[in-house]
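Table 4 source record.
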Amino acid sequence: MIRFGEILRLVWINIMENKAKMMLTSLGIIVGAATIVLVIAVGRGGQADVADQFKNLNAGAIDVSVGDGVDMDAMFAGMGGFPGMPNFSGGMPNFSGGMPSGGMPGGGMSGGGSSGSRSGSRSGGSTRRPGEVELDMEDVEDIKTFVSGIDEVTILESGDTTVYGGVLEEEMEATVVGVLDNYDAVSNLTTLYGRFFEAEDNDETAYVAVIGYSLAEEIFEYAAYAYGDYLAIEGKNYEIIGVLNTMGSVSSGISPDTAVYIPYNTAVKHVFGGEESPTITAIASSVGNVDQAMTDIEAVLTENYPSASFDITDAGSAMEAATSSANTLASLLLAVATIVFIVGGIGIMNVMFVTVQERTGEIGILKAMGFSRRAILMEFVMEAALISVIGGVLGVGLSFALIPVLEWTGTRMENSVWGWVLALVFAVVTGTVFGFYPAWKASRLNPIEALNQE
């Protein structure tokens, strides 16, 4: 009986005697293995980017902004509706927030005229067109009062404006955000130096600022230098009372690392002047309350502004969408790597067919010496598998050299043992599957015909 060790020795001798052919045969496997490792590293890097981007984003966060369009149904309802339509002018139905059916305290909010007077009267010195909807502190209070299942509600106003200070030689543009004193709790912001705002800062429209870590480094060279210094925003000096830790994205898609925060009243009065549209952010007490809270918030704001539409989004959906996109990209890249492996496998099969033709005499001699069909089959399958393993190892090694190059281009890579193992498994499976048929053909050769062919 032919020993397994003898077959393995024959396989190794054949490979070593044809190194150039072995390298060319395994080229597709090398590329495929390297591709597998790289695409998994890219996929994991994308997922890590998503995790970092949303690491400080509360899953229960709900962002509310005024929509671009006009809610025609609400407008017609406020005008009395179409014939046969129910008239809701007497007030909105009860819902879980506990709002009385007669509308909100203060009354006078039913009908189309009240919307115009409310939005117009609340704009103050705003540069907005008369009647244009603008969220404000009264809406924040209404949401706090009438929507249950909400822990915190805040309002912010943001936009790009010019800042100057530190080592800057000229003004630069930066994102400035006006926020309330509870914004740090809502967005999970923490300060590395100093403190965040207090209620008095907003009440007194104080000229104070909290700056993101990356922006502090850009303007002051070192983040520690920013604390206690001054930053000019729209020509007015603001004392920097705090520098944030590195954070990533938070509610409303703002990156605190590159933003400047100032008190909300200060921003409205001295920076934006009502030119930017405020956003309200609410934090649901639990993820399970998010959907109901979103419905109730929309009901409250629709009661306040019957002719307006609102964009209400939750952070959980944004995180799920981003994660899904990252996973889809990883799957597509893995599919590309699989195709590369299949092409490499076809290359192995073709070369093995040629090898069988070249070695028909050898096969005849082996059969004459007592090698069974099974032994011949095993020899050629093991040869294909070993070539694939060598190609897989070389491919994994190649990926180590390519990962730093790709990281240098700005692509985040997260290498993993799982990627190496999967690459080697793919290599072995590909070589075995595509090498089996040529090996089977070799095992079926008639020894006499094989010797005569030689």
